């Protein structure tokens, strides 16, 4: 069995301002830095050998802080980026027109054709996230990888591992610096492949983490 831990990045300035981030970037707040430290402390004895992060700044910053506690080889994989939110990136939620808000909600509410102009579909996101996850199976035997990614991206990955379509309504809450776990296994009781062990754990955080639905 191969175990993979999944972490969403720490709180960012744009999270607190309820701005749409997508593949644009915003640095961690002091709270986000503290969340990353607490995540590192929690995982300090987890035997992490590889920390593989999205190439966006907020995930790289989170991963670097976690690595201070856990060690491990730091790597980047652009497939772990957040969904491309197209023309809405950088916009405050309160500034969206009704049509723009409908574009955004089409990615969250189960619309198979959902896509923001100049952005990605959930199906495109799911394919690259699954590719990034499957790639960890090429790591040396006994590796314990940690993937650092984003709220929508991780929610889409976990949902599809559960057998939901990529565009299904979002029903998993993944707050900043939450920890999830998936395993690849062969079992007489479960179909061979990836299974979801746990999602969205924030027991290690000493202050409320933002709901990614506000990000």
From TrEMBL:
Pfam families assigned to the protein according to its UniProt record, in alphabetical order: His_Phos_1 (PF00300)
TM spans (from-to): 147-168
Gene for this chain: gpmB
NCBIfam families recorded: PRK03482.1
Keywords: Glycolysis, Isomerase, Membrane, Transmembrane, Transmembrane helix
EC number(s) recorded for this UniProt protein: 5.4.2.11
UniProt KW DNA repair keyword: no
Name under which the protein is recorded: 2,3-diphosphoglycerate-dependent phosphoglycerate mutase GpmB
Example of a GO MF term: phosphoglycerate mutase activity
